[in-house]
Amino acid sequence: MSKSLGSSVKSFFSKLFSKKLSDKELEELGDEFKLKLVENDIAYDLADVFSKHIIDELKERKFPIFSSNIQNVLVEEAKQYLLSVLPTEEVDLVKDASNVVSLGGKFIIMFIGSNGTGKSTTLAKFARLFKEEGLKPLLVCADTFRAGAIEQLKHHASALNLPFYSGKYGEDPASVAYDAIKFSEHNNLNVILVDTAGRAHVNVNLMNELRKIKRVIEPNHTILIVDALTGNDAVEQARTFLEFVGFDSIVLTKFDADVKGGAAISVSYVSKKPISYVGTGQKYSDLRHFSMKSYVCELLFS
Prior knowledge:
alpha/beta, Rossmann fold, 8-stranded mixed beta sheet, 8 strands
């Protein structure tokens, strides 16, 4: 994995044992390191505490000049610190859904996020995943606001040869979602994937609408979809949706195109929610599990 975040961390550590440094010089390097982290999409508050932790650790350990061991020790310390402040639990929605279905229940997933993040395509990827595992998904369009939203998700359902449910434009989204669940009961469908409207993530009416949908359908799992390439905006989306709607995990789209590497760490840090899956391409099969432990190790040790 080639991410500029990992390169910045290792470059910073290499400077620390190139010569004897005073406390003032260490502080200056710490400030420089913090800016590098922010440039690589690390949220400012995490960049601040992370850089300070590393500088404090360096001062406390009092490494000898040119110690050949210092970089390895600090990289390990950086890994341990990040994993201590980030959610590291791994989410397997296929397993979770299968467990619920095996007991005769339905597994409902609600997808939320701003426009342009890839919600509908990601929902379709999950639908394929559940179908491949022998479950019976239903694609539901509860976005009755955006022109073309119904047609877009219907196209995905058709391409996957899966059932689809929607209301009409302008209809109450919560009512559409509720009726979709009734439809699933009558048609022996056990995984209900509910797409919702995006709009701007600061839209108060939208947040109220999403809260209503969530209250009505009581999803087993709510997923926030964010675009890995939107940097600080992805962090703000995570904060806003968590505050006004709440979610259980995050899916990062365009993960394969993220050359910086900080978005995954930042959105998880500010929300204290795990990243469950990542989108790695345009095909329906381009969806994979995410492990924060593996990701941090790859960033720092590759």
